[in-house]
Amino acid sequence: VSEELADGAHAAPADAATQNVAREGVLELVFGEPDPALFPAAGLARACVRALRDGGRAALPYGANAGPPELRRRLAAHIAAAEARPIAGDDVVITGGSSQALDQILTLFTDPGDVVLVEDRTYSLALGMLRERPLRVVPIPMDNDGLDVTALEGALAALAAEGARPRLLYTVATFHNPTGVCLAAERRGRLVQIAAEHDVLIVEDDVYRDLSYDRPAPASLWSLAPDVVMRLGSFSKTLAPGLRVGWLTASPERLARFAHGGLLESGGCVSQFAASATAAYLADGYYDEHLAGLRTEYRRRRDALADSLTEHLPAGCGFALPGGGFFIWVTLPPGLSGAALLPVAERHGVSFLPAAACRPHGDEPALRLAFSLYPTDVLAEGARRLGRAVGAALAGA
Ligand SMILES: Cc1ncc(COP(=O)(O)O)c(C=O)c1O
To answer: Ligand 1 within 6 A of 273 CB?
Structure first.
């Protein structure tokens, strides 16, 4: 999945087979999607064939609302191996990816007029889903340690004073999209405490957890407080986004509400065939090895882009090395907005996501680069082009 731009410049041709189509001559560092060259296509092909055994008796009927039991069990084992909270298959519900789960959670757990809190830079396409609903989106400041929990307390007090009802907090606490930062460990405990005190449901969008490059990802908010958190996982970044398979961990009550909402009662598991194939893929036992390979490759890409940015960005720009995920957030010299830089950059043959697309309100001199899609030499060239574009924009060219 990539990101929209305000002007729709990246709209794909009507007959495009994929969501994002790169333009001739442009290195699309805007696209926050995995590299198709890294999809385990042969393993998935074998898994699909196996999912169809016995005439597809398990994979092709309407699926159990909560998803294939085997996939739920295997996911529970994967989660238990990494997170300090006991979990069984019953504690996992299969989704159609993080996007589908978020949309469904908004349907089931919000009412018109509710306040939804988000980090003041957030996943731009989650903002799209929020804006489609009669909800009030309130941004909470964040810094290099993630969401500012003191500012959150202040915002909750201010909202209470005006009689508003903050219902839900959407957060990408780990390897944040777009900034790459992780919520600091001490803030995690405080955050779940505040949410419990104010009866605010935390929706933890955790799609990058398995893509950590320096050290294991910090404890998820769900693992700290499953009663106040619905945590969204996804195979989009680690297997393939076209599968549309993800998962949800939450309290038994919220999982039951999700699994027995109108959508799943009508259609059963939203991705029954793909989820069955994913279970067959995991049964092969190569997933951990595949993840290790992805971490090695994406770490190389992150480092290549970072090294080249250090070399080519003019003075006044800055960035921090993310510990995981797909993104480097670049700050620009004061007065140069990402939106203003974008057309100049595209003339230089490189694109990015401007900060304004990630903010509920307002703008700042910053942009997001994705290092996931291209090999290291292309990323280095992208940084070179970006450096020249920033130089040209600053010179008023
Ligand atoms: C934070 C975040 N959430 C969700 C998604 C989309 O996930 P999925 O493909 O599982 O719907 C993305 C993809 O860019 C993302 O960055």
So the answer is: no
